[in-house]
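FAQ: What does a ligand-bound record look like?

Like this one, built around 2,5-dihydroxybenzoic acid:
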Amino acid sequence: MSSSDSSGHADAALGRLEDLPAPYRAELGAQNLVPLWPSLRAVLPPVKPVPKTMATAWSYQALRPLLMEAGALTPIEKAERRVLVLANPGHGLERMQATPAIYLGMQLLLPGEWAPSHRHTPNAVRMVVEGEGAWTTVDGQKCTMERGDLILTPTGLWHEHGHDGTDPVVWLDVLDLPLMYYMEVSYHVNGTRQAVKAGRGEQRFGQGGVLPTPAFEQRHPRYPLLRYPWKDVKAALERLASDDPGLQQIQVTYVNPATGEDAENVLAFHALMLRPGQILELPVRSPAMVFHLIEGLVEARIAEQPFTLAAADTCCMPGYTPAQLVNRSQDQPAFVFVADESPLHRKLGVYEVRP
Ligand code: GTQ
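The answer part, i.e. the structure of the complex:
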């Protein structure tokens, strides 16, 4: 929050800082006091927030060579996590945030490398972008990483990444790091290589409609499912599409299968299918959003500004913004991974859908 913000929203009817005598201002400052009225309109703008978040897109084709160069320039031991951060210029690149609560990073792991075990307060997910043979062990569960898979590393759970394959593996990290950092609760703890635990097999929660009885009886097991294979999620979208040929919002939400609640506490994750040629009008909602293209060719029109997304491209948009997603192919469906801040907005009581 900047109390010196005098953006064009200040109301002419309210007094300005310059209207106050300099000695008075100096005396206020000396006592750590600030007059509200010169900044009132900046911190409480009329009718809708004034976002710093700018609609921004990152081309995978353009960033990939730089990520591979990082692989040559910086060994994993010198990086721990070899990541190029997708930073929103509206916030200032050094803040390393895509939206108020969302951090995005493209992480590279080369064959034979190991990104050591740690745990931290921010929640993370990985969306696998490229390559085979890598794995992430989360809380003793070894998760294979294949293109389009979503893997959770929720707050506090140990995680480490390894790679037994032959080609580079890249994934998109989505964290609520900006929020945790702002709240002054962001920290990590280093660990040692995890043993893979029994009873943490990824197939335990793989069948919709049935749960292992102990998990059901526990009512609120936390993070029972850590890996959501893309082949299953894609099949679920295709079933929705064929079940109702008139359905517009062909979308699924990644949930905790035992509670039906959001998969993680702060950010929500969804997968969306666009039929060939489909134009999907998105509701105007308070949470900021991220779109990452898993398959196809899509134009994201964000407040009328067009961004073309090919496979593995990513873009973000501020909340309270009208947007459309257009499948640019006339004969192939498109598949989009979506992250948004809706669980956080609901918890704060500020979640809104605007007409
Ligand atoms: O892989 O654990 O992009 O701790 C940023 C912080 C990835 C990770 C990031 C992390 C990780």
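Follow-up question: can I read anything off the structure? Yes, for example: The longest helix spans residues 60-73.
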